[in-house]
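$ ./design --mode recover --in tokens.txt
reading tokens...
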């Protein structure tokens, strides 16, 4: 649990889970005055469940923790509240975290070594979200009553960062406070690279509409062009890869015994290409 100089409350939302989670949180909340539950009667999906969750608190600040992530710093909330209390120019703050893939921890922001502050165009002009949701602490008035363009987006967490930063900067604290778990059934993990690029492009186009400044729009248009070029380059690589695999298979079928050494080399190349 978190160690703080202030009282905090837990709000847990269960979106009709089928893995025994509901029973566990009901048991956890028994005889706890600091914990309230939202037990959905039918599955609403992550975005609507999130809205129900963040609408309930009446506290000054709201922190969010995904169901499959976890906090690692027992002073996370204290450090972030202290930061926002002394940085009125910030609408929210976030920290560094680690990503867990196949039980291995990886760094998320190895180049972020010191405190920094980001504007809304800084959050928009990235190749992906830089503030992992489980590290956020947000001033309540900015996370409640979120607009439709944010909540209807596939990349709603990314959109939220742009939206929060319309009201103040996003403050970065260079400490690791959470672990973000990546698994094969995750929202982004199950997308192929082309679908991922398409979702990014949708985000950039949506985000561009939120900026009136020509400099910001121009900056995002450059990001869109760069993303399109990267996608085209990947498409070209994939196309050439298929052609090369076909050529190697044809070579093995029609002259498999002409050169044993060459055949082994072709098989080796095939194994590399198919991975």
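writing sequence...
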């Amino acid at each position: 649990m978190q160690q703080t100089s202030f009282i905090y409350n837990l709000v847990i939302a269960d979106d009709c889970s089928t893995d025994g989670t509901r029973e566990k949180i009901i048991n956890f909340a028994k005889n706890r005055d600091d914990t309230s539950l939202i037990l959905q009667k039918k599955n609403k999906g992550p975005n609507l469940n999130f809205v129900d969750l963040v609408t309930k608190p009446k506290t000054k600040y709201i922190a969010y923790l995904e169901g499959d992530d976890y906090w690692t710093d027992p002073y996370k909330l204290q450090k972030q509240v202290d930061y926002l209390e002394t940085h009125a120019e910030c609408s929210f703050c976030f920290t560094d975290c680690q990503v867990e893939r196949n039980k291995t921890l990886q760094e998320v922001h190895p180049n972020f070594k010191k405190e920094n502050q980001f504007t809304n165009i800084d959050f928009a002009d990235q190749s992906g979200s830089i503030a992992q949701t489980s590290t956020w602490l947000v001033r309540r008035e900015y996370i409640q009553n979120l607009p439709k363009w944010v909540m209807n987006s596939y990349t709603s967490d990314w959109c939220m960062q742009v939206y929060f930063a319309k009201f103040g900067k996003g403050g970065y604290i260079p400490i690791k406070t959470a672990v973000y778990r990546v698994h094969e059934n995750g929202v982004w993990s199950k997308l192929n690279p082309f679908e991922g690029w398409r979702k990014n492009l949708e985000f950039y186009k949506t985000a561009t509409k939120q900026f009136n400044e020509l400099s910001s729009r121009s900056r995002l248009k450059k990001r869109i062009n760069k993303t399109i070029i990267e996608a085209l380059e990947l498409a070209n690589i994939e196309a050439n890869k298929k052609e090369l695999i076909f050529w190697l298979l044809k070579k093995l079928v029609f002259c498999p015994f002409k050169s044993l050494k060459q055949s082994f080399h072709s098989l080796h190349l095939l194994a590399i290409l198919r991975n």
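exit 0
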